[in-house]
Each structure stands twice: as structure tokens, then as C-alpha cells.
């Protein structure tokens, strides 16, 4: 790994050209979405919090929502040299961090975030080539621009690469 490490905050996104690493901390119910072009080694990472901007009045932060954040991420990676036809995605997060006594789906934010992410990427014809989603534990992820490897760190569940 060479280059700088760029932190992506909650409801945030960023893109880089090799060399460099994108990282985001504390993915609970949030989903980390990566886009990677293996030829140009352009990488992008979004840390989305909610599935849709449509039901929220204050939705000016596009990176907060799957529906607007993924589109913004796609535009940003293309601007710095990625080709849409070569892009692949990896996703992580979408955990159910708290248990609820009722079976109300509105509380299943992680599950809804993952479903929205998959639907949007499918609609954009960007294949998801790997994922580490669900469960009841948080994740920290690092995307390496040289290889496109996504390193996933968890407390109590170890570290793995996808």
C-alpha cells in the first residue's frame, strides 16, 4: 500500500486515483459502497446512512442516501478517469445493531440500506462482485486503489479481504 489514506466520514463520499486508500469507520446500519475501475485504478467510497432521500425534507447532503449518494459517487469517479463499463462494486455494512420487540420493518435500517444499494447499483448496471453485509456488528473498511481489495475489520469477528 502506497499513497495517502483518505478518511470518508458518515454521510460522506470521496474518490481517488492510485496511489491511495479510502477508509471509513463505524459502519453499523450504514453501508459502505465502493466503486473501482481495475484499469485506471480509480476508486470511490460512499458511506450512506439511509436508503432514500425522497421521504426526507432536509436532503441536501446527497452522500447521506443510497439513491443520491451512489449516483454522485458514479459521477465523481468518471470525472477523474473511471470508465462506467469497467466499474465493479463491493459493499459492506447494513448491520442490525439493535433488537426491537416489534417486527416493524421501518426499524430495519441496515437491511433497507443494503436492499436500496443493490437495487440502485443493479439499475446502473454496476456489478457487485463481493459483499459483507448484515449481522449485528459494526465494520471499518479500507479500499486499496492498487488492487481494489476491500479490507473489512470487525470487533469480535476478525479481519477479512473481499
Written overview of the protein:
- By secondary structure, the protein is α+β, with helices and mostly antiparallel strands.
- The chain has a single domain, classed as 60s Ribosomal Protein L30, Chain: A (2-Layer Sandwich).
- Helices cover 18% and strands 36% of the residues.
- The chain contains two helices and ten strands, in the order βββββαβαββββ.
- The strands form two sheets. The chain has a five-stranded mixed sheet with strand order 1-3-8-9-10, with no helix packed on it. It has a five-stranded mixed sheet with strand order 2-5-4-6-7, with helices on one face.
- A hairpin with a 4-residue loop joins strand 4 and strand 5.
What brief labels describe this structure?
162 residues; alpha+beta; 60s Ribosomal Protein L30, Chain: A; five-stranded mixed beta sheet; 2 helices; 18% helix; globular; Chemorcpt_Glu_NH3ase_CheD; Cytotoxic_necrot_fac-like_cat; chemotaxis
Amino acid at each position: 500500500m502506497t499513497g495517502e489514506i483518505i478518511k470518508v466520514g458518515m454521510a460522506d463520499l470521496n474518490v481517488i486515483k492510485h496511489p491511495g486508500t479510502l477508509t471509513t469507520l463505524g459502519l453499523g446500519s450504514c453501508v459502505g459502497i465502493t466503486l473501482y475501475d481495475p484499469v485506471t485504478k480509480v476508486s470511490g467510497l460512499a458511506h450512506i446512512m439511509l436508503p432514500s432521500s425522497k421521504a426526507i425534507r432536509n436532503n441536501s447532503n446527497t452522500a447521506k442516501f443510497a439513491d443520491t449518494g451512489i449516483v454522485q459517487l458514479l459521477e465523481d469517479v468518471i470525472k477523474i478517469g473511471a470508465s462506467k463499463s469497467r466499474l465493479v462494486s463491493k459493499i459492506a455494512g447494513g448491520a442490525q445493531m439493535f433488537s426491537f420487540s416489534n417486527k416493524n420493518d421501518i426499524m430495519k435500517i441496515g437491511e433497507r440500506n443494503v436492499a436500496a444499494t443493490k437495487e440502485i447499483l443493479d439499475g446502473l448496471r454496476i456489478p457487485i462482485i463481493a459483499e459483507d453485509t448484515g449481522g449485528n456488528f459494526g465494520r471499518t473498511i479500507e479500499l486499496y486503489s492498487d488492487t481494489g481489495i476491500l479490507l473489512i475489520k470487525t470487533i469480535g469477528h476478525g479481519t477479512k479481504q473481499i
